[in-house]
Amino acid sequence: MSHNLFDTxxxxxxxxxxxxILYSLPALEAAGVGKISRLPVSIRIVLESVxxxxxxxxxxxxxxxxxxxxxPNAARTDEIPFxxxxxxxxxxxxxxxxxxxxxxxxxxxxxxxxxxxxxPLVPVNLVVDHSVQIDYFNQPDALKLNMEMEFERNTERYRxxxxxxxxxxxxxxxxxxxxxxHQVNLEYLARGVVQKDGVTYPDTLVGTDSHTTMINGIGVxxxxxxxxxxxxxxxxxxxxxxxxxxxxxxxxxxxxxxVTATDLVLTVTELLRKQxxxxxxxxxxxxxxxxxxxxxxxxxxxxxxxxxxxxxxxPVDVVTVNFMRSTGRTDEEVAAFEAxxxxxxxxxxxxxxxxxxxxxxxxxxxxxxxSLAGPKRPQDRITLSKMKESFNTLYSKPIAENGFNQPADxxxxxxxxxxxxxxxxxxxxxxxxxxxxxxxSNPGVLLAAGLLAKKAVAKGLTVAPHIKxxxxxxxxxxxxxxxxxxxxxxxxxxxxxxxxxxCTTCIGNAGPLREDIDKTITDNGLICAAVLSGNRNFExxxxxxxxxxxxxxxxxxxxxxxxxxMNINLDTEPLGTGKDGQPVFLKDIWPNSxxxxxxxxxxxxxxxxxxxxxxxxxxxxxxxxxxxxxxxRYQWDDSTYIARPPFFDAAVPKVGDIRGAKALALxxxxxxxxHISPAGSFKPTTPAGKYLQEHHVAVKDFNSYGSRRGNxxxxxxxxFANVRIKNLMLPPNADGSRVEGxxxxxxxxxxxxxxxxxxxxxxGTPTVIFAGEEYGTGSSRDWAAKGTQLLGVKAVxxxxxERIHRSNLVGMGVLPLQFKSSDSVASLxxxxxxxxxxxxxxxxxxxxxxxxxxxxxxxxxxxxxALLLRIDTPIEVDYYRAGGILPYVLxxxxxx
Length: 896
Hints:
Layout: E1 9-15, E2 18-23, H1 25-30, H2 41-52, H3 61-68, E3 79-82, E4 86-90, H4 91-110, E5 124-127, H5 142-167, E6 171-174, H6 181-189, E7 193-196, E8 199-202, E9 204-207, E10 221-224, H7 227-234, E11 239-242, E12 246-252, H8 261-274, E13 281-285, H9 287-291, H10 294-302, H11 304-307, E14 311-313, H12 318-326, H13 331-343, E15 359-364, E16 371-373, E17 381-383, H14 387-396, E18 414-416, E19 423-425, E20 429-434, H15 443-458, E21 468-471, H16 476-484, H17 488-493, H18 515-524, E22 529-532, E23 548-551, H19 554-563, E24 576-577, E25 583-584, H20 586-589, H21 593-600, H22 606-614, H23 621-624, E26 658-666, H24 673-676, H25 687-694, H26 712-718, E27 743-746, E28 749-752, H27 753-763, E29 767-770, H28 782-790, E30 793-798, H29 803-811, E31 815-819, E32 835-839, E33 850-856, E34 862-869, H30 874-881, H31 885-894
Parallel strand pairs: 4-5, 4-9, 5-6, 9-10, 12-13, 12-15, 13-14, 20-21, 20-22, 22-23, 26-29, 29-30, 30-31
Antiparallel strand pairs: 1-2, 3-11, 7-8, 16-17, 18-19, 24-25, 26-32, 27-28, 31-34, 32-33, 33-34
Helix pairs in contact: 2-3, 4-7, 12-13, 15-19, 15-21, 25-26, 26-28, 28-29, 30-31
């Protein structure tokens, strides 16, 4: 782009005598377009992209004026066309996206076009981090053995990725064994600013993981989208979103001694969930923000999906610049980064009153207490001192109140597993994992865990061998600094040896429990626990048989592993007995901030970062040994991992009313994308298991749903198949509890949801899904929408939606509709045996219009209610008309 709209194309000094061009926000304000300097920093960075990419077609002068005149509390009807600088993928979402690109090349070739017109127009990095599982742990060669297992299971996927690297010019892969996507993004992929064709502009991105927001910690605007939206962004579509509210969070004071970044972020998550920031930008400011370390900022930013925000944004300041320098960026890059943000008036954390926010939330850092969150949701914070009391109370509380509905007299019972004199009971820790991007990126909490382990070992404390302990660092840098600080050995002695570089336990790849333990838990209905330094603890995510899952800081993960149980008060009860026979309390081994600061220097050595990121394949013989196919088009074979997706085969559906529909499922509140999308392992008796066996895949070779995301046949069979999902169409059990698992009723008979969906398709009957509040909460799983579409679902009707899943449904041509006022599944007395008509859907539909739902009951009576169409923007109407975003983009590319 070389336009000079509003005379904003200006020259500025990069460093020394070097100059570059920028699109100046101060010049835009000087031109009288808007009071830019009062806008939230995050809005200004998006505005720069809109200004720079103004082409008069997709991005117009009107878009620039609209955003430049953002008002804190206006009605949100304008959409922003946001052109990002790059795209980041993780492998679970990246593989199906690559399969879609390969299928688009086939579709282009089929109509006589050059397949090479399908090519990412911005740089794309895929980081392989989601597939490694903790099969081996607490042994010196655990990392090597888990990597070997990973390659044994995933070679077909990795071969496909390697084909993609040579087929597409702008597609790069960070191989398995390097680190977690968000940590690699923070330490290596993000460059601060981009310099192209003589113009300098901010690094911006979207990523196919909801925790992409971790990058907001260094002032990069970016968030998680589904693979569907990312694909469109790769192929030249702006990312369209409604102008957001921006909530300012005014941080005051500083953290007290002994309080960690994890305690802070669990408090922020609880606070902002209550403030209802879903779909909003959150921007941190004030003196408390300035005082936070960069990793602490990144930890808070990472958890934006847990508090529901689109972003958790931290402006660029001297702390950011120092972090970029200490993580190995070149002096030239760092100087350009600092000079650019200063020239744009974007440097420094804003002070109270300097920005116009939609609302301000205050948090005194001095008020933060040591905390955990659980047992089922990240926003349910429990102070450390109340853990015992909370667990014991929740044990008998009803399911509806986050409890386990167990008889109180069963709480203290213990059961022998029949092996190694092991006996277990309710509240016992079975998995203790230092895992996930949130905390394995933060030297403050990792070094604290190492110091605590060192003191624990010195006192003679141990971890029971039946507890599955693991350390999965965010990158290889972590292993280096823990080793150099002399702390890794102590962690290893307590069972926390490095087991993998990947999401592992937090993503559902905890691996199996010991058989005798698993059987004892299920036979006796025990409520056993996992404690992890993760960000997600939804039901059945960590392990299908562990019902209590608690998020905690890495040092607390180690402490609870030593204690062996969650229902303990670590303020007043000892962790264990030392070698001198004396009780050892948490306070006896908890490291102080001076001790942590002493070893912090090991985590800030630029040479280590440069060494480890200079050659990503040097120490990866397994990756280097994979032979990959070549050529512009992929030669599809009979792989059960990679199959040509069907999204470009069907004719464009006719837009119109949906009549005679049946309910496929009636869901309650907080149905997550983990419930909807296939994730984790699956059994031979499931539709997916049966399909693989029919295709001669042995049960031991099933792998996980996540690793098979490149095969739609497996994935559609696993949609709505989560073992904890509850379909309210099914009659309750004799004790009043709800049937769990992916079942529904077809003509009165209980069958798998997949089987019912196929019968409805064969009958020519459209289907709909009904749900409660926060439908689609959780990870940005595109298969939650793709699977829904392939099952023949035409519409979802819910009380409210999480942001990414709603847009993904539109992207797949499924109508998201929302109940109005007090209407709900319960108030309308829906049972699932009704027939439904959706009227008001036409080619000239408008965003957020009303649609009429007419319910015809078994007795012939009818009832009509108005629903809100949650197609929110004009471009989404276009996507829906085309049958989804992918057919829309393909049509646009081949018509050039």
